[in-house]
Design goal:
By secondary structure, the protein is an alpha+beta fold. It has one helix and eight strands; from the N terminus they run H-E-E-E-E-E-E-E-E.
């Protein structure tokens, strides 16, 4: 029985080695099939999008600079680019709006005396500012 066991073990080892060689050979054949040669005569084309930036403009139509009024609020109207962020600031109040068309109008409260109203338009990193001085004096009754 010892002799049969040794023969069976040797036949098993030989069969295992044969199966291993077949497996390795088939893997090498598959690797060869997937390797592709890259063509060197291809010219790369790079497209760079040109960013055309508009010149930012801001026009204040009303109120006029150094205007005197007896109203507690004024209507600020002006023009700037569509999509611009408009910021209106004074020591008394602050309003922010996104411009949906070229013309903008907003009511802004005044404090008694001189009002330094800073109006700014922002698109991306571009900013344009204008300052208007409006004087609010209560009327005597």
């Amino acid at each position: 029985m010892k002799r049969e066991t040794v023969i069976t073990t040797i036949i098993g080892i030989i069969m295992g080695v044969i199966v291993a060689f077949i497996a390795i050979a088939s893997i090498k054949e598959k690797n060869v099939e997937y390797k592709k040669v890259i063509s060197t005569d291809v010219t790369p084309q790079v497209t760079v999008p040109l960013k055309v930036e508009k010149k930012l403009s801001l026009t204040i139509e009303s109120p006029e600079n150094d205007m005197i009024t007896d109203q507690k609020t004024i209507q600020i109207t002006g023009k700037t680019e569509i999509g611009a962020l408009i910021v209106i600031q004074s020591p008394f109040d602050e309003k922010v709006m996104k411009n949906t068309n070229q013309q903008f109008t907003i009511d802004f409260p005044l404090s008694l005396g001189q009002n330094n109203i800073k109006i700014s338009s922002h698109i991306g990193s571009d900013t344009l500012e204008k300052t208007v001085y409006v004087y609010f004096l209560e009327s005597e009754k």
